[in-house]
Amino acid sequence: MKAKNWFLKISYRGLINVLVNYFFIMLFINALDLEVDFNLILIIICVSILSISFWRVVFRKPLILIIIFVIALIVLAYMNFYQYELYLELLEKFDDFVTWSYRFIAGLTFLHKLFFNILLSVAIFILSLFTSALTYKQKGVYILLFLGTLIFVVRWFQFSDIAIVYGIFYIGFVLMLLAFNIYISKEKHWEEDGKIIKTNIIRNWIIYSTIVCILIVFIAAAIPKNFSPITWRWLDDKLQGRFDHFANWRNSRKTSFSYGNKMKFDLTLTDFQGEYKRLGGPVNQKDILIMTVKSDEPLYLKGRVKDFYTGSYWKSSDSSYKQELKGIANSSYDKNILGKEIRYTITHKNIVTSSLFNAYIPKTFNLASSYYYLTKENEAFTDQLVLKDKSYTVTSVKPYIYPKSLDYSMYIPKKDFEKYLQLPTSIPSSVDDIAYKLTRGLTNDYVKAVAIKTYLRNNFEYTLQPPETPYNKDFVDYFLNDLKRGYCTYFASSMVVLARSAGIPARYVEGFKASNENVNEDGQYLVYSSNAHAWAEVYIEGNGWMIFEATPRYSNVSYEEKEIENEEEAIDGEIDTDLDAIDRNLQDMMEPAMEEELLIEGELLQQEEESKGIILFKIIMYIIITVLALVLLKTLINIFKIKKLFRRVNNKEDRDKILDYYKYIVNLLDKVDKGKNEYETTIEYSSRLKLDVWEVDYKFNEVTDIFNKARYSEEEILKNEVNQVIGYYYKTENKIKNNLGRIKFFLYKYFLMEIYK
Question: Which of 71, 169, 215, 606 has the most neighbouring CB atoms within 10 Å?
Fold first, then answer.
């Protein structure tokens, strides 16, 4: 029956541990916006079981860990000598995995399925070790409950509704684990008190505690959570002005706004970007009517502005809005900006989003919703979703261009514009080289931007079927130097990156481009899903943000000029002349580059051989660091266990205290081959050791007599007798330490804990 109960305890605790791990990890999967499939679920469950088994077996028997480490080294050595090609291939793959993992965690690359599964398995394994260490301690379960609940609440406030579902299951299983640990603690006390434990009590405890935990979680989940908070407009404004992220906290006052904020438009809602963290790849266009636009001219309809380039995708570094408006004009609009006022009406057809599409510089929005919001980039969104057949009217200003100011346009550094010059440190120098060659000798930012745009339009092919960008390649670098063909995201990204490399602020914009080819009988522009588009906005000092269309399929944007007076011909001539010089510069750039490539080919081969040795060194170092980390973790846990053990022993009655310390003394003596035989009495053991094991204040036979008195007699135990046994223990510990050496003694005491078994 004991064996049956033991199996039930192990199985139940292991099952709960796996389920706790599963729902904890699923929250992080949700935070990364990754697709959950059967393979992912299987990985989580299998690796959790493996990790829990590893904890129970290896950490209780560290010799197994040493054997695994030695076997790994033997396998590596064998492959190095007898399977060298396979060995090198594995080393390169390992180095690729480490590089990808660093870039993926830093948000600099896209999802690589195989590498992600490996990384996820490692993360689950480590996390499971952590939770396993806490699972077996009642206080550890409290830590799991607190940390897990905190993380789930934070994710829920960040508008991940599925987090509350994961949280309910997680908390329920942690409570079941807590109830089970309480039973284990009770059972120990019952055994110490000599009470009779019924055979079915463990089963009944599990059943009743499970029912109670389910009821607690069910009642907590059923409590309404959508109470309206107290609204204090002045305090709201003050807090949101100082702490923008407060505006994104979930509450019923701003539920619709915040939900809408999470439904902003970006290209992942179209066919032009399949994954959030990955640009490019083949596109299969669908012609679905997205919206109609009543306007006097075709417009670039801005939906989303992104300023941070990672090397494989674009993201927004700041999601906070600048102002909240209600039926009033955009107060951030600079009244000194002169331009043509355009008015247009947008009607959503097959798109649901909170984004308000607009062109150029929006002045006013006329919509039924109570509030709408504007960012510094004039990205607009409303506090409610704009559904099918809903319309809104926008009045925008299309700025005039001043040719004379274009001649002297040079960027003057501004703090707010620093983010529009950001480039990842991982971007190859070849991209900077292209930007330098394109803009070398040009006198102003406008001409430089036109040169970059013209280079992209004239030298690269438009196609909807480019191959996927390799995971270890920068998106723009791969397009400019290898692929040389693509669609709008390729051209717009390259335009922005090259402009930034030339020191000109630029940003990446996503939205739709209305076309003269799609106009109905009522004069409305029909905007289809195939009209989804990405373009660049470049800041030209004295003129503001200007659209630069680098994609060959689309025509250049036409701006009206102020005070032209024959300046157009002079500017066009200057730009044409400079572009001829640019073409010659590019030709000059390619020839020495090819010669240099031939010269360094030998050096690359040598570096490749050297890199193989570096990769091997990395693997060995990773293995050593992992082993040392596991050893350190095990040691720290044991140190806390020993401290807790002695606190418990010292709180016992004097008689029990003597029994425990005597056992520790015998265990210490066993480490120097002076241990007690199994069938030997304490008196015989003491006599065999000749009554003077160590030269200390008391003899071992005296300590033995005190032990026998405490164990077999009803006589009163004196305080000095207790102190004599404790003192002998510490004297013996010091002697054993000197005899074995500090390292070996440390291993016995803190790593293996054999002294306290």
Answer: 169
